[in-house]
Specification:
With 303 residues, the chain is an alpha/beta fold. Helices cover 54% and strands 14% of the residues. It has three domains: 26-116, no CATH class; 142-247, Nucleotidyltransferase, domain 5 (2-Layer Sandwich), CATH 3.30.420.40; 261-302. Helix 2 (24-55) packs across helix 3 (87-96) and helix 2 packs across helix 5. The relative contact order is 0.06.
Length: 303
């Protein structure tokens, strides 16, 4: 009898607790929902930091041996990844000093769920890149007609890359948008053509291309075997070739500068100095010494 009474009292108290706090299942659901909300808030913050860094055109991480990211000291009152931790971690620590959810995650969160590793940073940036690219392609689909702009250049590691931009009319305004950078395996017309065509593959009808702008290099400007001729003859018959106005202006400025004797002599002297120094054995040792020590390589650039 006493046992039954105690059980009834316990059940009554549990019932009252359920009325106040909800059932065990609902409490678990609320906790789960709160965890999801915190996770979303944390990931959104990471993306916003990366987006800010990208918009400001500053580096995400320090390069080479300078990069040092220490673990957050749990006992410390402030969040600090230490010197040379890079812009991303520094900004994350700053936000953590003013956001309890972020601070708790970077201090006490599991190591595999902090998402601060450089591979995760790159993955998040790639996702944002895809979103921007998809938005541009959607606008191109709506615009229907467009022009392509492309130029080839070398990056700091001497790799050949193709910069591709598009120009189109959307919502009553002319848009000129950078689309992507493609690494080139070959520098012939077929290699350049495949990169340009594949950028809009399966998303935009390339037959609606009505203009193409490149520099004056023969591989793109040739009337018979250049990229512009192949596109016009085989892919987009309305795509008229235009020699890039900026490149024309650059050629004009170079011609004007070299027509002045003192300017021509100055550039000639600088070019000879570059050739003399860069061919020196000491210069090669200087580059090797910087590389061996993991430093940012400082070298002369050809004019």
């Amino acid at each position: 009898m006493v046992f039954s009474h105690c059980k009834a009292v316990a059940n009554y108290e549990a019932y009252n607790s359920t009325l106040e706090k909800g059932s065990v299942i609902s409490q678990i659901s609320k906790e789960h929902a709160m965890l999801i909300k915190e996770n979303q808030h944390y990931l959104v913050t990471l993306c916003e930091i990366l987006l800010t860094i990208a918009q400001q055109k500053i580096g995400v991480r320090e390069s080479g041996s300078l990069f040092r990211a220490s673990a957050i000291d749990i006992e410390s009152e402030s969040n600090d990844y230490g010197p040379h931790s890079g812009n991303f971690l520094s900004l994350l620590a700053l936000v953590g000093n003013h956001d309890e959810v972020i601070a708790r995650r970077i201090r006490l969160g599991p190591g595999n769920a902090k998402y601060t590793h450089h591979s995760v940073q790159n993955a998040l940036l790639d996702i944002m890149v895809d979103e921007v690219k998809n938005k541009i392609l959607e606008e191109m689909q709506a615009a229907e007609y467009f022009a392509i702009l492309a130029d080839e250049t070398k990056d700091l590691s001497k790799k050949e890359q193709l910069f591709i931009a598009v120009r189109y009319l959307y919502d009553g305004n002319i848009h000129e948008e950078f689309l992507c950078i493609e690494e080139l395996e070959t520098l012939d017309a077929e290699g350049l053509l495949s990169k340009i065509i594949n950028v809009t593959k399966d998303r935009v009808n390339f037959q609606n291309c009505i203009g193409q702008a490149y520099d004056g290099a023969s591989v793109v400007s040739s009337k018979h075997a250049g990229v512009n001729a192949i596109i016009k003859d085989c892919v987009a018959p309305l795509a008229n070739y235009i020699h890039c106005f900026n490149h024309r202006l650059n050629l004009v400025l170079i011609d004007i500068a070299t027509s002045i004797q003192c300017v021509r002599d100055c550039f000639s002297l600088l070019q000879k100095l570059y050739a003399f120094v860069s061919c020196s054995n000491i210069y090669a040792k200087w580059i090797k010494m910087q590389t061996d020590r993991g430093l940012i390589v400082m070298e002369l650039k050809q004019i």
